[in-house]
Amino acid sequence: MRAYIYVGGAICAERITERPREGDLKIAADSGYVNAVALGVTPSVVLGDFDSLDKKTLPKGIEIHTVPTEKDFTDTQMAVDFALARGCNDLVIIGGLSGRLDHTLSNLAVLEEMHARRVHAVITDGFNRVRFLRNGSTLVARSAYRYLSILALDPVVKGVDAEGVKYPLKNAKLARHNQYAVSNEITGNCALISVKKGGILLVESAQS
Q1: Less packed terminus of the chain by CB within 10 Å, N or C?
Q2: What string of DSSP letters covers the chain?
Q3: Is the pLDDT of residue 27 over 90?
Q4: Mean pLDDT, residues 137-156
Q5: Domain coordinates of the chain in residue numbers?
Q6: Which CATH architecture describes the domain 131-205?
Q7: Matching CATH topology for 2-126 and 131-205?
Q8: What is the pLDDT of residue 208?
């Protein structure tokens, strides 16, 4: 089951092609409700401490979960946990990549946690789209995102291959303190990215 989780932060709506289908769970984390509405989506669930959204303005019929302002987890983290509790194993997080850097880094860490829990997850705001990969391979389709970067999260990542890109990699070694696989470009319909040992972030970025 797939969940769409809408969080706060600036988005480029015209580049967000990820749209929920019938049967998908639609969750807004606090001010993420505004982003959902901007994309023509009415969430079925809104949760958070409502420090940036007046819950009195929400339409009737929406499931609302209020949490204390002083808490251990961010609204995004709680929305993810809520989706998992509802049986979702595929998450699309929309927003959350702009504004406060601490929240952005926290949201990116969610991707690594979900991979460890065998839950597919991606986060996008229309300016960037990010997924996590460890000890495996994945296809990245050519899209409106011009650039494709491979960022090492472990101190050293080994056996990195990148095929179907302007600057191919073959059995490359990446280091977290020296990120050089940045601003590549997909040359065909898709790119094949593989890593033998270690964790990476795959970041697709628009030109502007």
Answers
A1: C
A2: -EEEEE-SS---GGG------TT-EEEEETTHHHHHHHTT---SEEEE--SSS-GGGSPTT-EEEE--SS-SS-HHHHHHHHHHHTT--EEEEES-SSS-HHHHHHHHHHHHHHHHTT-EEEEE-SSEEEEEEEEEEEEEE--S--EEEEEE-SSEEEEEEEESBSS-EEEEEEETTB----SEEB-SSEEEEEEEEEEEEEEEE---
A3: yes
A4: 95
A5: 2-126, 131-205
A6: Sandwich (2.60)
A7: no
A8: 60
Query: What is the token pair recorded at 94?
Result: 């929309």
CA distances in angstroms from 84 to 79, 80, 118, 171, 190, listed in the order given: 9, 6, 11, 35, 30
Q: The domain 2-126: what is its CATH number? A: 3.40.50.10240
The amino acid that residue 98 corresponds to is S
60, amino acid identity: K
Torsion of CA 208, 128, 19, 108, to 10 degrees: -160
CA dist 62 and 43 (Å) reads 7
Give the mean pLDDT of 12-33: 93
Q: Map tokens 């699309």 to a residue.
A: 92
**Residues of the chain above pLDDT 70, percent:** 98
